[in-house]
Amino acid sequence: MLEELETIRKDALAAIATVTDEPTLEEQRIAFLGKKGRLTMIAANMRSIPADQKKAVGQALNEVRQAITEAMEKTASDLTAKRDAAAFASIDPTLPSRALPQGALHPLSLILDDAVRVLRRMGFALADGPEIETEWHCFDALNTPADHPARNESDTFYFDSGKLLRTHTSSVQIRTMEAQVPPVRVIAPGSAFRRDEIDATHLSAFHQLEGLYVDRGVTLADLKGTLEHFFREMFGSSTEVRFRPHFFPFTEPSFEVDLKLHAVGRAAKWVEIAGCGIVDPAVFAEISRKRGDQAYDPTQVTGFAFGMGLDRLAMIRYGIPDLRLLIENDLRFLSQFSA
Fold first, then answer.
1. 107-337 belongs to which CATH class?
2. φ, ψ for residue 207 (rounded to 5)?
3. pTM (2 d.p.)
4. Are the C-beta atoms of 242 and 258 separated by less than 8 Å?
5. How far apart are CA 15 and CA 329, in angstroms?
6. Domain-by-domain residue ranges, the chain?
7. What is the residue-averaged pLDDT of the chain?
8. Which range is most confident: 193-207, 298-312, 317-331?
9. Residue 169, helix vs strand vs coil
10. Do residues 273 and 231 lie in contact, with contact meaning Cβ atoms separated by under 8 Å?
């Protein structure tokens, strides 16, 4: 039996040495190691070998199988290397590579980065909060009455738990004041959600940037100066900005902010761009009640808040006529921002 194993080893190694392609190598594997291969048949007859010879035969059988397997693996590796070398032989490595398509930031990312950069230079820190909010953070703490239209299910996405998708990032301002004593100067960019019909100027999921500054002696002049500087940094030093009286539950007095647009071939027109105002003392009183201290005593601190849609800022800066272009992921549109 030992002599037969040695014969199989020599025959297998000799046959493998003459192999020049993968199919022939597979034939040799089947001939020696397959289900009916010569070595497999020897292994199947181990039970008929006398007990005093089984150890020696078993050891020799394993050595022969390992020698054949290693020879086949080496031959397979050599054949793969030769095939790869032949494939690369016709390639000229001195030729210039093909240009890869260049990616780019989304216009919303571009406008957000610029807006945050301007406001960070003005001393504002970034703040963040959850998109699934409580009614208290989204409405009650912001002095929004129970019968306000924004609290209707026709305007807001509610969950069975009573929580909701935040309708604005003002909830981040509330969470910041819960956790931090004045002075507070933060901006809160992020997504907001409302049950709006999707059209050229409305989306049900959109992006906001809100700001809050609370300290002693904060005035309307601080608010006006902050926003005028911000919009002129974003759209040019000649940008015209105006403030119109308005109503928001959480600020008093409140204003809407307009920019004057000068489109080529069209008459200049004012476009609403943001809302703002001096934080209503009722908001500070509710924060103080929740905190259980007088850190936001409305007789001691004042503040201003503002909010704007990043989607609308992008539309103005890049002359985008339809808000839906920002969410359709059409490469014909997005590629314009890769230059």
1. alpha beta
2. -125, 130
3. 0.69
4. yes
5. 59
6. 2-85, 107-337
7. 90
8. 298-312
9. coil
10. yes
CB atoms within 10 A of CB 201: 14
pLDDT score at 5: 78
Q: How many residues does the chain have?
A: 339
Q: CB of 68 within 8 A of CB of 9?
A: yes
Cis omega (within 30 of 0) for bond into 253: yes
User: Quick check: 176 and 184 in contact, CB under 8 A?
Assistant: yes
Q: Where are the alpha helices (DSSP H) in 90-194?
A: 107-121, 135-138, 170-179
Token representation of residue 28: 């040799």
CA–CA dist 217, 203 (Å, integer): 38
The Cα-based distances of 124 to 2, 111, 127, 159, 227 in angstroms read 86, 17, 9, 33, 13
3 state SS of 158: strand
Peptide bond before 183: cis, by omega within 30 degrees of 0? yes
- Report the largest interatomic distance among the alpha carbons of the chain, rounded to a whole angstrom: 108
d(CA 284, CA 19): 86
Within a 10 A sphere around the Cβ of 117, how many other Cβ atoms? 11
Residue 70 is which amino acid? Answer: E
